[in-house]
């Protein structure tokens, strides 16, 4: 029976050879890494809530809107109470609390200027078949050669979504 | 025309140099305020006493290096460098909202390491930036991070643009900050307008447009992709951000600019050409010797093949001769044997009777003679003898009928072939005569000949154009052509094609008796490409060839092909065409109208599909909520800040937008921050060193009591959920 040690040596030859190789110079990317640098200023006792997922933008904004609505209700109620109690006159202006959504600019009310989808110049004409705006005859000739998907891409760049869902 | 183009090459990315951490000694134990300008593009951080902050792109990547299998964490510029890092790049911001707190934590780690902090906690009061009216969720998580993870003693939030305004309107020392102004802040994913009255930011009247550099660079990318759908290299948003920063500008009057650019020459003059890296095609230059050697080799190969073919032919000849010999021997042997044996032998050879054997022998003989002649002459002689048809002249007898029929067919075939040969010869003679005549005409009267050909050219082109017009008109259901077609179809299918009387008497529709009736299907069937068109095109080709060869004034530009594929001068100026093989030319991007179009979107976001008012309109709305006296105070100091405000042409554009909506006697002054990217940080640093700073922050105790969302209300910070303490 062959000694057991022999088998072990056969199965793990690779590990033995590693330490003999010279240490390689770190690449640039490795020298930029700070994974292994000690960070003493971090509090080791702080356990992050691992279950907390990074919320996406839509969820955050909806949550904000809800909170804002609740808050406004509360303030309105308080105001009512104060007015009833006579502490505040009804004419006193309601304080506006700016929030992320209320700050957003309103849609434009100015008439939209038409610009050519292809060249960017002024576009007095619109192609009825595709809906693209164009500057003159020669651009129209070019539009006629487009296939439907190209025309749709131009429209999407303008923000007009031609797909009816 | 390379010298006329101003070709710009994409910048080659420079490698970042890993910098060692700062020395912490000067701040150890001193509690100098730590200023962090947490921007969506760049993170700026430093101590309040430093003159300049550290900056770095606000992006981290946590990934495993492929080769060394080590876990790496990279911040800032290094992320762009490595493809593995780029794939795992994370940005703490999503547009305008701080969402990814792991990324923020890693970024802050890097910041603190760089500052050399080696104590147990970050023992400095911190002043950080927030977005205008930032969502409470973001603020709560940031506060949690700062207080719990880094244990800062106090934390204050501010709005970056107001601090930049503060820096540029610094009051004299120990005087309160009471400046007025209208702050226009250009950020990565939004642009905001904030009025500041008497040193207080009036956030309830502020407005934010969801358009910033990230949207602008995405829009530019989309425009480039539409303009160059088959571009060989991939254009990324980093490229377009660079293009936006270096090539795009605002125009003070966009409509006037567009009217000017209608002219193709001005369009070409206004363009900037970007050369992307390309692979030059490898051209192996063959020297004369090499060419000769290759030609020789080819000749030798040809000769070898010829020899092989000749050898095979000789072999076949021999084989045939042997066969012939064998068969003739067989025939001669006929006489020696009896009839029965003879027929048996024939059958075994595969011949039915004597005649078949004779015919076979004759065929082989002829074949041999012909091939032997070919070897000698090298050319196929026409069968000189006329095969004879003896039986044809005899009257119909019963036995030889089959033979006679066979011979009739053979004769007919032979005569038909002879006729065809004669026709071909006649045609050839005619054609030669034609060409001769034309050559004579050309020499005698070149002008007349050219005129005649040109007229023919034009009429043929006219016919082709007419046909294409008709085809296009047919697709429109209501056009006259389409209706005429329907009328034709209806009349063909009508019941009264056959008059009633004849129908009763069993009359039939006589359509098709006359050959010309079928011509109507040409008009009805639009799917088939009519042969007329092909004929026309072929004739056009011939005429053009002749004209090109002999008429010096007829150029390639006038041929049908180039006239149909020609693009207008305007389109050519928009997007110049390069030859197929011109690899360098085909990896160029020409930007002409896009340069201004992208910046115009700040003032008209609807151009890019964003349903929002533009900067001009928003300014108007914001100003409208103030009284005239207040307005006067605000517009005397319109302050623009933020890195994108460095785009050229912004100030003249704002002036021409604001001037018309203000009363003529109101003074309008537009000022840009002295250092638009860094002034926010500098303003924060200035403020942090005043005595007011400690009173605006939230201390750790207050955080533990109130939670992360409540902050103190002060002139530079947001108001939502804040309390005045």
UniProtKB/TrEMBL annotation, chain A:
<feature type="compositionally biased region" description="Polar residues">
    <location>
        <begin position="18"/>
        <end position="34"/>
    </location>
</feature>
<keyword id="KW-0804">Transcription</keyword>
<feature type="domain" description="Vps72/YL1 C-terminal">
    <location>
        <begin position="114"/>
        <end position="143"/>
    </location>
</feature>
<dbReference type="Pfam" id="PF08265">
    <property type="entry name" value="YL1_C"/>
</dbReference>
<feature type="compositionally biased region" description="Basic and acidic residues">
    <location>
        <begin position="65"/>
        <end position="92"/>
    </location>
</feature>
<dbReference type="GO" id="GO:0006338">
    <property type="term" value="P:chromatin remodeling"/>
</dbReference>
<feature type="region of interest" description="Disordered">
    <location>
        <begin position="1"/>
        <end position="47"/>
    </location>
</feature>
<dbReference type="InterPro" id="IPR029525">
    <property type="entry name" value="INO80C/Ies6"/>
</dbReference>
<feature type="compositionally biased region" description="Basic residues">
    <location>
        <begin position="1"/>
        <end position="11"/>
    </location>
</feature>
<feature type="region of interest" description="Disordered">
    <location>
        <begin position="65"/>
        <end position="96"/>
    </location>
</feature>
<keyword id="KW-0805">Transcription regulation</keyword>
<protein>
    <recommendedName>
        <fullName>Vps72/YL1 C-terminal domain-containing protein</fullName>
    </recommendedName>
</protein>
<dbReference type="GO" id="GO:0031011">
    <property type="term" value="C:Ino80 complex"/>
</dbReference>
<keyword id="KW-0539">Nucleus</keyword>
<dbReference type="InterPro" id="IPR013272">
    <property type="entry name" value="Vps72/YL1_C"/>
</dbReference>
UniProtKB/TrEMBL annotation, chain B:
<feature type="region of interest" description="Disordered">
    <location>
        <begin position="416"/>
        <end position="479"/>
    </location>
</feature>
<feature type="compositionally biased region" description="Basic and acidic residues">
    <location>
        <begin position="416"/>
        <end position="440"/>
    </location>
</feature>
<comment type="similarity">
    <text>Belongs to the actin family.</text>
</comment>
<dbReference type="InterPro" id="IPR004000">
    <property type="entry name" value="Actin"/>
</dbReference>
<dbReference type="InterPro" id="IPR043129">
    <property type="entry name" value="ATPase_NBD"/>
</dbReference>
<feature type="compositionally biased region" description="Basic and acidic residues">
    <location>
        <begin position="451"/>
        <end position="465"/>
    </location>
</feature>
<feature type="region of interest" description="Disordered">
    <location>
        <begin position="369"/>
        <end position="397"/>
    </location>
</feature>
<dbReference type="Pfam" id="PF00022">
    <property type="entry name" value="Actin"/>
</dbReference>
<protein>
    <submittedName>
        <fullName>Actin-like protein Arp5p</fullName>
    </submittedName>
</protein>
């Amino acid at each position: 029976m062959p000694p057991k040690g022999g088998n072990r040596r056969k199965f793990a030859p690779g590990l033995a050879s590693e330490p003999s190789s010279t240490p390689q110079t770190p690449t640039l990317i490795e020298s930029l890494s700070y994974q292994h640098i000690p960070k003493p200023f971090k509090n080791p006792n702080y356990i992050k809530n691992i279950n907390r997922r990074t919320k996406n933008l839509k969820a955050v904004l909806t949550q904000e809107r809800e909170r804002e609505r609740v808050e406004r209700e509360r303030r309105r109620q308080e105001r009512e109470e104060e007015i009833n109690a006579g502490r505040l006159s009804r004419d006193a202006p309601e304080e506006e609390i700016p929030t992320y959504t209320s700050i957003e600019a309103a849609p434009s009310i100015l008439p939209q200027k038409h610009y050519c989808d292809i060249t960017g110049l002024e576009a007095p004409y619109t192609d009825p078949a595709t809906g693209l705006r164009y500057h003159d005859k020669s651009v129209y000739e070019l539009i006629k050669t487009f296939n439907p998907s190209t025309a749709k891409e131009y429209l999407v760049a303008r923000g007009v979504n031609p797909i009816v869902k | 025309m390379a010298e006329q183009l101003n070709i710009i090459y994409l910048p080659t990315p420079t490698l970042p140099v890993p910098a060692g951490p700062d020395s912490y000694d000067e701040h150890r134990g001193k509690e100098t305020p730590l200023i962090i300008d947490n921007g969506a593009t760049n993170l700026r951080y430093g101590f309040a006493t430093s003159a300049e902050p550290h900056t770095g792109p606000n992006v981290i990547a946590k990934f495993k290096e492929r080769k060394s299998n080590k876990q790496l964490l990279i911040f800032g510029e290094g992320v762009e460098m490595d493809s593995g890092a780029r794939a795992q790049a994370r940005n703490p911001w999503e547009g305008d909202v701080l969402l990814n707190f792991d990324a923020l934590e890693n970024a802050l780690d890097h910041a603190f390491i760089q500052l050399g902090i080696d104590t147990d906690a970050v023992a400095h009061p911190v002043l950080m930036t927030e977005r205008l009216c930032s969502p409470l969720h973001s603020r709560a998580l940031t506060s949690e991070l700062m207080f719990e993870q880094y244990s800062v003693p106090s934390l204050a939030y501010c709005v970056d643009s107001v601090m930049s305004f503060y820096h540029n309107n610094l009051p004299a020392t120990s005087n309160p900050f009471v400046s007025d102004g209208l702050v226009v802040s250009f950020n990565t994913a939004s642009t905001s307008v904030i009025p500041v009255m008497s040193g207080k930011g009036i956030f309830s009247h502020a407005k934010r447009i969801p358009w910033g550099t990230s949207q602008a660079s995405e829009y530019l990318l989309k425009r480039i992709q539409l303009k160059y759908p088959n571009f060989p290299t991939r254009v990324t948003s980093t490229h377009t951000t660079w293009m936006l920063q270096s090539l795009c500008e605002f125009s003070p009057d966009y409509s006037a600019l567009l009217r000017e650019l209608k002219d193709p020459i001005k369009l070409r003059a206004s363009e900037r050409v970007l050369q992307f890296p390309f692979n030059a095609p490898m051209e192996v230059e063959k020297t004369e010797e090499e060419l000769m050697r290759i030609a020789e080799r080819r000749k030798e190969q040809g000769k070898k093949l010829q020899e092989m073919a000749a050898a095979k032919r000789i072999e076949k000849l021999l084989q045939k001769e042997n066969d012939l010999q064998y068969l003739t021997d067989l025939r001669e042997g006929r006489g020696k044997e009896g009839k029965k044996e003879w027929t048996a032998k024939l059958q075994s050879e595969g011949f039915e009777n004597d005649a078949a054997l004779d015919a076979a022998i004759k065929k082989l003989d002829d074949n041999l003679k012909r091939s032997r002649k070919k070897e000698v002459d090298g050319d196929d002689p026409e069968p000189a003898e006329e095969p004879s048809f003896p039986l044809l002249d005899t009257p119909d007898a019963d036995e030889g009928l089959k033979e006679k029929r066979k011979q009739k067919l053979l004769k007919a075939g032979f005569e038909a072939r002879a006729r065809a040969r004669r026709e071909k010869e006649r045609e050839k003679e005619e054609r030669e005569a034609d060409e001769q005549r034309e050559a004579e005409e050309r020499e005698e009267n070149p002008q007349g000949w050219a005129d005649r050909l040109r007229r023919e050219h034009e009429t043929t082109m006219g016919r082709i154009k007419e046909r294409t017009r008709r085809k296009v008109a047919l697709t429109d259901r209501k056009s006259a052509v389409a209706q005429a077609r329907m009328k034709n179809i209806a009349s063909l299918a009508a019941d009264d094609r056959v008059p009633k009387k004849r129908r009763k008497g069993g009359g039939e529709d006589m359509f098709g008796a006359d050959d010309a009736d079928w011509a109507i299907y040409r008009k009805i069937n639009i799917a088939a490409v009519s042969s007329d068109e092909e004929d026309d095109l072929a004739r056009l080709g011939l005429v053009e060839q002749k004209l090109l060869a002999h008429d010096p004034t007829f150029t390639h530009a006038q041929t049908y092909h180039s006239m149909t594929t020609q693009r207008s001068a305007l389109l050519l100026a928009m997007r110049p065409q390069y030859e197929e093989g011109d690899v360098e030319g085909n990896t160029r991007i020409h930007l002409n109208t896009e340069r201004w179009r992208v910046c115009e979107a700040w003032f008209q976001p609807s151009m890019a599909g964003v349903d929002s008012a533009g900067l001009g309109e928003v300014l108007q709305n914001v100003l409208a909520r103030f009284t005239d006296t207040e307005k006067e105070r605000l517009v005397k100091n319109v302050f623009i800040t933020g890195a994108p405000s460095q785009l050229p042409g912004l100030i003249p554009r704002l002036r021409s937008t604001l001037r018309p909506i203000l009363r003529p006697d109101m003074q309008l002054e537009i000022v840009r921050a002295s250092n638009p990217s860094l002034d926010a940080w500098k303003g924060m640093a200035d403020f942090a060193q005043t005595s007011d700073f400690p009173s605006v922050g939230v201390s750790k105790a207050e955080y533990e009591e109130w939670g992360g969302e409540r902050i103190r209300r002060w002139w530079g910070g947001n108001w939502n959920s804040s309390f005045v303490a």
